[in-house]
Amino acid sequence: MSQAPIFQRIKDYIIAQIESGAWAEGTLIPTEMALTKTFSTSRMTVNRALRELTAELVLVRRQGAGTYVAPQKVQSTLVEIKNIADEIAARGHRHHAQLHALERIPACEMLAQQFKLKVGQHLFHSIMVHFENAVPIQVEERWVNPSIAPDYMTQDFNHVTPNEYLMNVAPLQGMDYRLEAVLPTQNIASMLHIEPSQPCLVLHRTTRSANQIATCVTMWHAGNRYQFVGGKEQSAQSS
Amino acid sequence: MSQAPIFQRIKDYIIAQIESGAWAEGTLIPTEMALTKTFSTSRMTVNRALRELTAELVLVRRQGAGTYVAPQKVQSTLVEIKNIADEIAARGHRHHAQLHALERIPACEMLAQQFKLKVGQHLFHSIMVHFENAVPIQVEERWVNPSIAPDYMTQDFNHVTPNEYLMNVAPLQGMDYRLEAVLPTQNIASMLHIEPSQPCLVLHRTTRSANQIATCVTMWHAGNRYQFVGGKEQSAQSS
DNA sequence: TAGTGGTCTAGACCACAGC
DNA sequence: CTGTGGTCTAGACCACTAT
């Protein structure tokens, strides 16, 4: 592949050294100047290759010291959980939602703590059921911080999901989540049209915006008709 | 912040334009030459800023055409599932494992299909239970392709988890996974010391190495004592 | 003090898109 | 054809690390 850009050939070479085991993790690799001579190129080109591999967590660089092979990544599986409406649309199926509750409620102690507000301050609360081709697959119970989305109560959630609406009005700053398997309450079971003995896959997610807690959401999925699926390619090189 | 590098100031400027709404998604942004003049810098510096923002999926570039604000990211939650032993160690707890089975078996039709092998070809099969402070939290049932890890049967899995061992001998190429909530079998329930009516969080994962299916694994977690948790910071800028 | 990486310049040639 | 981005050069100055 003599037609590949030089910076890419340098990256490929370094990755090959690491994958062959020749350069173990922590190994001090050749300096920019040395690679400049090996590849008969300029320092800027070598620098780009090394900088990109550093961004990809393949290398670690220390100014004044040198460039090292990064410590081994921990083995982990990244599960990507997408917006329910998009996901259904991507499968070529029809999505619709049913609003079961939309209200303004005072925060109980637990909610107040979650939102870092005082007990009794008001929150918006909504319960929706999402359908895929008329089959209920998700119950979404959500609490919203009014100072982040003051117009939450006046939205038409048949056309825009709470998710989409909040993404637009409140730029996402960060999130925490928790994923568990539990038995549904009587209420949840009836909304999902399942038996109370049927396990549910439950995702709790809290999102932050403007340095506040924007929204807490609990998503219940019937275990027998919903799974989180996905895949991932492991490629050290990109560009 | 006049001490920040120029390329970073350019990145910050572009991100600010996007976040303020001045540049909506799909907007054609100024050319490299234009930014060169705006920031009184060289084209290489502007190029670096734009190239990095492209790698970060903030921008999209089309040679000959121009640079555009990338289409909005889909809202998604990334759940990271780590190696069980590391996770327990990170909590400061003690991990140990119990080997329930380790054998060489001929592939049934279903396994043969999964591994893209012929029915009757042999696979390694293992069942382990992982304990956190003497409490069973995961049952790991695994099938391994012998051509990827011929020495699988002779490992001491009390000291190195199957996960770790396979990561070392078979560089990860990619994976597919499926996450579901189900009721345990009688067997699984007894290994996890739970009631058969207690839901389990089950992760199925298939990994590829050397263009083959390396291993299929099913991990059962007691729903009442195990959850996948995590968080994520949303930051468009990096370097 | 010598060597490393971090950043930057002012040019250059090329492939590709749109007119 | 002109203008865009993609890549590259051969220097440069600086901050930092190790000896």
TrEMBL record, chains A, B:
Keywords: DNA-binding, Transcription, Transcription regulation. Transmembrane segments: none annotated. Pfam families: GntR (PF00392), UTRA (PF07702). SUPFAM superfamilies: Chorismate lyase-like, Winged helix' DNA-binding domain. Signal peptide: none annotated. InterPro entries: Bact_HTH_transcr_reg (IPR050679), Chorismate_lyase_/UTRA_dom_sf (IPR028978), His_ut_repres (IPR010248), Tscrpt_reg_HTH_GntR (IPR000524), UTRA (IPR011663), WH-like_DNA-bd_sf (IPR036388), WH_DNA-bd_sf (IPR036390). PROSITE patterns: HTH_GNTR (PS50949). Residues 4-72 form the HTH gntR-type domain. One of its GO terms (molecular function) is DNA binding. GO terms for biological process: L-histidine metabolic process; negative regulation of DNA-templated transcription. NCBIfam families: his_ut_repres. This is Histidine utilization repressor. It comes from Hydromonas duriensis.
